[in-house]
Structure formats: structure tokens, C-alpha cells
Amino acid sequence: MxxxxxxHNQKIIKSLLLIFLGSIALTISAKLKIPFYPxxxxxxxxxxxxxxxxxxxxxxxxxxxxxxxxxxxxxxVFSNSPEKGIGLIYFMGPTMGYLIGFLFAxxxxxxxxxxxxxxxxxxxxxxxxxxxxxxxxxxxxxIIGWDKxxxxxxxxxxxxxxxxxxxxxxxxxxxxxxxxxxx
Length: 183
What we know:
Shape: globular
Radius of gyration: 17 Å
Number of strands: 0
Number of helices: 7
Helix content: over 70%
CATH topology: Arp2/3 complex 21 kDa subunit ARPC3
Distance between the termini: 23 Å
Mean pLDDT: 92
Number of domains: 1
Structural class: mainly alpha
Low-confidence stretches: none
């Protein structure tokens, strides 16, 4: 009985450590700006999907939830914080839809079956990232008005970078799934 209890405690500690390290990875991915055309690229969407693939939907969802909680309480974890604000005020700004989309995307990436051919993996990962943008443009439209070119402002500038990140994740998916099994 004691061995089972010890194993269970070790699993909980390992999960908590993964959640904490994942939130740090998300923060770093938000802060690094990589020169890209037409706008600088962060690796946030890459890390969100990576967390889902590698950690699975439960730990991935807990990780993104912790990251969002850290930002909402005022830690400068979001992409343009503290320069453009912190806490709930920043969270409820134009990027809130994208941030909420992270939760659904990490769940979808962690839940779906990626043990398939590379073409289907690419499609499934594209759907995961699309979830982020769907939530993003829905919120952005409410914030700036539906009379503005929402897709041109909130999606189009990022498409080339997302294609790059999805392609990279597609190549890495099978080894990452193997990583999940060993954790």
C-alpha cells in the first residue's frame, strides 16, 4: 500500500512540475520576438500546441490555465506586458480571445489522435491553431467593431508564421507523442 501511495505522490509532483515548467515555457515564448514577415513572430501558438501534444490534454489544459491565471493576477507573462499593461486590464484587451483560444487549442491538440499519417497530423494541428484564431477574431470584432477588417487585422499577418510553426510541429509530433508516453 505504501508503494502505491509513494508512486501516486511522485506522479502528482511530476505533474505539478510539468505544469509549472510549461507555464514558464509559455511566458518565454510570449516574450521572444522573432523577426518574420509581415509581423514579428512569437512562439506562443507553437508552445500551446506543443504542450498539448507532449503533456496530453489534462496537464496541457492545467498548464495554460496556470499561465492565464498568472497573467490575470498581474504577473507580466503575456506578450506585450508590462509595456501595454498587466493583469485583468491587459487580459480583457484585444488579445483576450486568442488567450482563451489557447485553452481550447491545447485541449484539442492533447485529446486528438495524432498516431496517423503526416498529412492528417498537419490538418489536425492546423485545426488546433485555427481554434485560437477563431476565438481571437470573435473577441477582436467585439472590441474594435465588426465594421473593421477583422480577419485582415487579426489573422492574415500571422498566417505565414503559423504555417511555419504547424509544419515544424507536424514533423516533431511522432517523437513528441513518444515523449508523452515516457512521462
